From TrEMBL:
GO molecular function list: cis-regulatory region sequence-specific DNA binding
Pfam families for this protein: Cupin_8
Organism phylogeny: Eukaryota, Fungi, Dikarya, Ascomycota, Saccharomycotina
Protein name: JmjC domain-containing protein
InterPro entries registered for this protein in UniProt: Cupin_8, F-box-like_dom_sf, JmjC_dom, JMJD6_ArgDemeth/LysHydrox
Single GO cellular component term: nucleus
Record PANTHER family: ARGININE DEMETHYLASE AND LYSYL-HYDROXYLASE JMJD (PTHR12480), JMJC DOMAIN-CONTAINING PROTEIN 8 (PTHR12480:SF21)
Residues in JmjC domain copies: 253-419
SMART domains according to UniProt: JmjC
Family matches, as PROSITE patterns: JMJC (PS51184)
Entries under Gene3D superfamilies matching the protein: Cupin
């Protein structure tokens, strides 16, 4: 779902704006550059450039007004009033929202949401990444972190922040098995089920390339988060976009997936035979996805759904940079509302997290894990682990969720105590009944396994309750701490 533009921008933690300095296409500058103008009076400058009405409004209110404009022509014409309104009304997130609200599906991508909405045609060579329809120069007129920060984030070069692949390979602490024979089911169950790891596969899980997919499925609809485009349009988008968070093709429903052949990596460990959710049959949540994304695209910190574990393997293209933290160690910049983590708050984008200083904090925090996964390798993500992934180059991958035996207590605890967070089950299956249904299914296959798993659930609950009581005690002691009482 596309989030309201004004709300998204309010959530930003502005770090240094002097890194990755690149000229904004319209000449917009950070707000701090206006300090020497009008005696540092930001309001006076805005009144001068936007007029008495719009100039008196905070940027968030101005953008909230602009995003309420339903007519594309009205939004376009708003920019004709003055240079400042041209800059604000040309903000590409507004045109992304417009395309979403209008259910407009572009037949081609022309470098920006604004150009693509209007079908303004291909940009010339040398201007591939610049909206050449933006001929208005707003230099010296608009000073706005609101407009400049997303552009700055879109220019991020992750190799400058995290170092070269060779450098990271030397310091990465996510273990990589050099061959599939180095890890067995027994080793996974006893030692590795709660540790992230990579493995060099004997061969890639599939042999598709982007060109091959385009040749066969170029006119097929795929899902890219909140958009549904033909693959050939998305390929154009990947080649030429300036989005802060590039669209990520993450699809499990496209008709093309029925004909795409692949092998599950480490099938003895990851495949359906050892997956307890397989007992749900066709009622289980979607669990295998095709993933395609350009450089800079990726996923911010999250945990996989329903307490499941996951594997991810790159089929072709570039590499992925991973950061992980254990379940009880939220990454810097990510806050949760309590032990059950029903609400998670995080920076607007992956780039914002990096540029906001959280990456440097993360590297110093206990539990920090990092690694680069290449074509022909597979990454294992343990259940409950926080993870972030960034594509360093355009890549095609497959990923899958599963429930291995050692993580069954964790999953049952999730289904029992976090029923409001259960997702993905088919309509016929009431999420409130998933815990009991899975217990019944496991009991029919292995009563001993169920008994052992439920003992594990009890241990998890006891540990959580003890931790909760400790925090309550600490809070109580802090609230009753010594203070002088001058009333006596």
């Amino acid at each position: 779902m596309v989030e309201a533009v004004a709300n998204t921008q309010k959530k930003r933690k502005l770090g240094s704006l002097d890194s990755f300095v690149t000229k904004h296409p319209l000449g917009v500058l950070p707000k701090g550059n206006a300090l020497m103008l009008m005696g540092g009076n930001d309001t006076a400058l805005r009144l001068q450039t936007l007029g008495p009405y719009f100039g008196s409004l905070p940027e968030e209110i101005l953008m909230a007004i602009l995003q309420e404009i339903e007519s594309p022509l009205d939004l376009l014409h708003t920019g004709y009033a003055c240079k400042a309104l041209y800059a604000y009304s040309s903000f590409d997130e507004l045109w992304k929202l417009m395309m979403y609200n209008q259910k407009h599906v572009p037949e081609a991508w022309y470098g920006s949401w604004r150009r693509s909405f209007w079908g303004l045609g291909a940009v010339s060579d040398g201007q591939k990444d610049v909206d050449s329809s933006r001929i208005v120069d707003c230099s010296g007129v608009v000073y706005s972190d609101f407009l400049f920060r997303p552009f700055q984030c879109s220019q991020i070069d992750y190799t400058k922040l995290i170092g070269s692949e060779e450098h990271i390979s030397k310091r990465q602490n996510i273990h990589c098995f050099e061959s599939e024979s180095e890890i067995s089911c027994e080793q996974f169950d006893s030692e590795w089920h709660n540790k992230p790891f990579m493995v060099q596969l004997k061969e890639r899980i599939a042999d598709w390339t982007m060109d091959q997919l385009l040749e066969v499925f170029g006119d097929t609809i795929f899902y890219q988060e909140y958009m549904s485009w033909k693959l050939k349009v998305y390929a154009q988008y990947m080649e030429s976009n300036q989005d802060e968070s590039p669209l990520y093709l993450f699809d499990c429903k496209s008709s093309a997936l029925k004909s795409l052949k692949y092998q599950v990596p480490l099938a003895d460990i990851f495949d359906n035979e050892r997956d307890w959710f397989n007992l749900f049959g066709n009622q289980r949540p979607d669990y295998r996805w095709l993933i395609i994304g350009c450089g800079r695209s990726g996923s911010g910190f999250h945990k996989d759904p329903n307490g499941t574990s996951a594997w991810n393997s790159i089929v072709s293209g570039g590499s992925k940079y991973w950061i992980m933290f254990p379940p009880d160690s939220p990454p810097p910049g990510v806050t949760v509302d309590g032990e059950l983590e029903s609400e998670v708050t995080a920076p607007v984008s992956v780039a914002e997290w990096f540029l906001g200083g959280f990456y440097e904090q993360a590297r110093r925090q206990p539990g920090f894990h990092e690694g680069i996964c290449h074509v022909g390798q597979a990454m294992y993500v343990p259940a409950g682990w926080w993870h972030l992934v960034v594509n360093l180059d355009t890549s095609i991958a497959m990923t899958g969720n599963f429930v291995p035996n050692p993580k069954l207590p964790f999953v049952l605890d999730f289904l029992k105590n976090k029923s409001d967070q259960i997702s993905g089950f088919k309509n016929e299956l009431d999420c409130k009944d998933v815990f009991d249904r899975l217990k019944t299914l496991i009991a029919s296959k292995s009563p001993e396994t169920l008994a052992t798993a439920l003992e594990g659930v009890q241990k998890i609950e006891n540990a959580r309750n003890s931790k909760g009581k400790w925090h309550t005690l600490i809070d109580s002691e802090e609230s009753s701490s010594f203070s002088f009482n001058f009333d006596e």
